[in-house]
Fold:
Amino acid sequence: MKRYLTFLWDCFRLSFVGDWRYHAWMTALTLVALGGVYAYCHQFVHGLAVSGMTDQVSWGMYIANFTYLVGLAAAAAMLVIPVYVYRNLHLHDVVIFGELLAVSVIVMCLLFVMVDLGRPDRFHHLLLRFNFPISMLTWDVIALNGYLLLNLHICGYLIYCAYCGREPSKKFYIPFVFIAIAWAISIHTVTAFLYVGLGGRPFWNSAIIAPRFLASAFAAGPAFIILTLQIVRHFTSHKVSNDALFTLRRIVQVALIINLFLLLCELFTEFYADTHHIASAQYLFLGLHGYNALVPWIWTAIAMNVAATTLFMLPLSRALKTLNIACVLAIVGIWIEKGMGLIVPAFIPSPLGEIVEYSPTLHETMICLGIWAFGLLVYTILVRVSVPVLAGQVTYAHHWSRPRQEPAAPVAAPVPENT
Structure:
C-alpha cells in the first residue's frame, strides 16, 4: 500500500511539471472547462429551457457529441488488435496511448449524458429501475462503465508495473485486453441499437446504422491517435516510429472507404424508393419545405470525408504534413456527419408532421466546449504521467534512492566511496 500511495503521489506531482507551453495549454483548458461549469450551473438552476432542445427535437448537441465520442473510445481496439492478435511490433510501444484515450473519452461520454439529463439529481431512478435485459439504455450503461473499468485496469496495471520496475504478469492483463476488444465493438453497437430500436423514427430504422458507426469510429479514432502520437514524439523523449504512424494510416484508409460506401448505400435506400419516410433524409441533404439549416453542414462533412479518403489513397499522404491534414479532415467530417447529421434529422418532421429546426444555444456550446476541454485535460495529464514512467525516468527505486539532506561534513572528513 505504501508503494502504491507513493506511485499516486509521483503521478500527481508529475502532472504539474512541464515547460511554459505545457502550463499555457493546461491553463487554457482549465479556463474553458470552468466556463463550461458556469454554463452548466445556469442550466442546472433554470433547466433545459436554456438549451435549444424542444418537445419536437429532444436530443441535440449533447447526444451528438456523446455518439461521436463513443466511437472515438472504441477506436482503441484498432491499436490493441494489431498488437495482441497479429503481433504487430510497430504499435507495441504506442498502444497505451489508445487505451488512455479510451479512458478520457468515456469520461467525456458520461459527462455528456449527465448534462443531457434534465434532473441529474434523479439519476438514481435509472439505477433502481433497470429493465434488464430489455432496455437498450441499461445495456449502454453497462457497456460504457464496463469499458471504462477495463481500460483503467489495463492502463493502471501496466504503468504501475513500469513504475515498480517489474515485468507485468500476462495473466493479470492479457485476458482483459481480449475482453476489451469485444467490449469496444459492443459499446458502439449498443449505442447504435439505441437509435435503431426506435421504430417511430424512420431515419434511424436501418440495420446499416451499427456498421456505419463502427466504420466511422475506426476512421476518426486512429486519425486522432496519429495526431496525438506526433505531439508526443515532438514534445517528449518517447520514441514513436514512422512505421507505427503508417500502420494507423492504413487502418484509417480502409475505414474511410467502408464508411463512404455505407453512406452511399444509405442514400440509395432512402432516395431510390421515394417513400414517405424520406422526409428526414430530404431535410438533411436537400432541405424540406424551406427548412435547410443542416444542408450546408452535411455537404461540408461529405466533402471533407471525400477529400480525406482521396488523400489517404494517394502516396502523398506518406508525408506527415499531408497525413495530418487528412486526419483533421476525417475527424471534423465524421464529427459533423455522425453528430448533428445523424441525431437531429431523425426528429424532423415530428410524428405529427411538425417541422421545428434545432440550433444550439450559447449555454449548450459552452457546456460542450467545457466537457471537451476537461477530457483533453484528463488525457494530457494521463499522457504526461505515463511517458516518463514507461521510459523508466520515474520509478519507485529512484524515488527512494534520492539523497537526503544531511548536515555538511567537515572539510577533512573522508568521503565514502559509495556516496
In short: The chain has one domain: 25-396. Residues 25-396 form a domain with the Formate dehydrogenase/DMSO reductase fold fold (CATH 1.20.1630.10).
